[in-house]
Structures are given as structure tokens and as C-alpha cells.
Amino acid sequence: MNDRSDAAGSPSDEADESPSIAPEALADRLRSGDELTVLDVRDRDEFERWHLEGEGVDAVQIPHVRFIQAQATGDVDELAADLEEPILAVCGRGEASAHAVGLLREAGIDAANLAGGMDAWADLYVARELDVDAPATVVQYDRPSSGCLAYAIYSDGEAAVIDPLRAFTDRYVDDAADRNATIRYAIDTHVHADHVSGVRALAERTDAAAVVPEGATDRGLAFDATTIGDGDEVQVGDATLAAVATPGHTTESLSYRLDDLLFTGDTLFLEGVGRPDLERGDDGAADAARRLYETLQDRLLELPDDAIIAPGHYSDAADPRDNGTFVARMGALRDRVGALSLDEDGFVERVTNDLPPRPLNHERIVAVNLGLEDVDGETAFELELGPNNCAVAD
Which of 209 and 388 is assigned the larger pLDDT? Predict the structure, then answer.
């Protein structure tokens, strides 16, 4: 990410001198819902493309050049007059925002800098073990900047990673090594439209099998992979992952069941359901919504109340467990997710109207994930920055 305003002359070492908040601390702060003014000093186009959001967050964009001008005129306090304290300043790499924080604090304003900027925020990846009764150790990976979740399943010295992100391939490899486990499978629940899949990269690094739904072939799959469908199983040590067809968000979507734990990808979330318009656009959204309705009614709502749903994303509306993980029992979701209690027509209307903007670069991301386009790591990282927007929230 380019921190264009750094060129205006702020010394980079100010990032080390200004009071700062680490990305990990910011994640905790956002989860708390405490009020916070986020002052984004990047240019308007960078801000509009992607900026910090969350409950209690008031995001304000004032370009860094205006702070340079205010420094010259002595009007920094006037520039920040309408900003509620405390203030967290952000930019691309944490340098221009550090300069702004220094000026704000000189003016007596409570401000701190996001250490490393939005690049460091995008790089934050948190691993937590699920506290669930399962025949394997399950680790949930959380990328707070986008709400993307991935999972590693460990059993008897073997591992599988579900919905890995390409940007964190090394992390999965290192974590498996720390557990003395061999990664046997890299699995995608569907063809993702919001992030670049790590299935191929992880398979290349580890000789694991790249596993994708058989329906990905119909969408143009252009790389060698093991394709599986409804009822097929993947053996990970002593644990068995059973594929369950859950179409709707996309035609090929699969979920994976590990006893009473179900990894639902983008089919069912803790606060909503998958959006139906990413594969075939607005024209195909209603038909996809009807398939999703059938999936939810005939497959997921047939699960017992104590079954645990492990989704592929979460939003600001989702409440984590006490240990910070994002899972919930099916019984709780029956009551919490209003779309699950609608009739078919009401459901279709609900999930096709007033949808949020589609994920940035979604068509190109799909092409990359099918193997129809190759991009380098930096381009892949840039393509997926921003909110995932794969859910229809209640």
C-alpha cells in the first residue's frame, strides 16, 4: 500500500517517537465497542477503497498535506477542532500518521498512532484453539482487518487447512511444524470472491493435496486439484472431514463436518447468511437465493441444536466467545439469524435486496482462485484489501 503523503516530508523516524497502538491492541479495542475517532491521513481514494470500521468507530479522512499546512500556520488545533478524543491516526505504513500525531499532541490533543499503519493491520493474523468437543485439535485463524476465518485441523501428526489465505501460507506451514504435524490437505469450501486462496500455494509448499469442490470444474477450474462432492470424506489422522453440499452462495459450495462441528464457509455466518449474487450477478441472484434457502432448510436447520457452526467470516455485529473465537451453536443461530425463520419468498426478498457493495476486485479474485490468472504476492495482497462483504447480515 502506498503511503503517498510520506513524500511530503514527514521524517519516518517519527513513527518510533509518537505514542502508538499495536494492531493486536487495536483488534481488542474494536471488539470492545468503545468509541474511537480514527483519523485517516491517506488520500481520499485510498480511504474510500478501504478504511477502519467497527462499532463505536468514527472514521474521518483528513489528508496529511493539510497537517503539513497547519503546522506551517500554527492551526493544528483548528484542523482537529471537530474530532472527538481519543484519536487514532492511521496511514499506509504508520509514518505520515505519526507526524500528524506529534502535531496533535503538541496541541494538547489525545492522539496515538497505529503502529505500522494499515499494512500492519492487514498483516495481523491471530490463531486461537477452539474450545469444543471434537475428535481433533481445531485452530481458528482470524484476520481482523477483513473478518476472514480459516481453520487448521490437527490429528495424529497430520493436518488439514480449510479456506487458507495465500498471504499467510508461511504461517500455516510454521504452525504445523511447531505441532510436529504434516499438512496433508489444503481445502477450499468454495471459489472465493473476497480473498486470494492459499490452496495452491500451500500445496506447493508442503506437497499437500489441493482440494476444491467438484463444481469448481464447471466454473473453469484451471489447475490440478483433487475435486470432491457431497458425501466424500477427507481423512486427517484419526479424524474424518465429511463434505456436505451447501449450494446457494455459490453453486459449488461445500461445508465440512467434523462430528458435531460444521465448517460452513460462506453459507451460514453467526449474524447472517451468504450473499447470492457474486457468481452470476443480479440476474442470477434470485435463483441462487432459492438454492440457499433449500440448503439452509434441508441441510443446516436439520442439525441438532448443539451442533457448532464455524463460519468462514464474521462481521462487526458478531460476538466472539470469551476466548475470542467465532463459533456458535445451531440452536443459538436459529434465534439470532432472522433470515432462517422466513418463508422462501420472504427469504429471497431479504437476501437479494439492499445488498452491500460487492467485494473489491471480486471478478479478478475469482479468476485468480480458479487458476485463470496468475498474480504475484504483492498484487494478490492488494487485490484482497478491504471488507469481505460476502454476507447478508440480519
Answer: 209
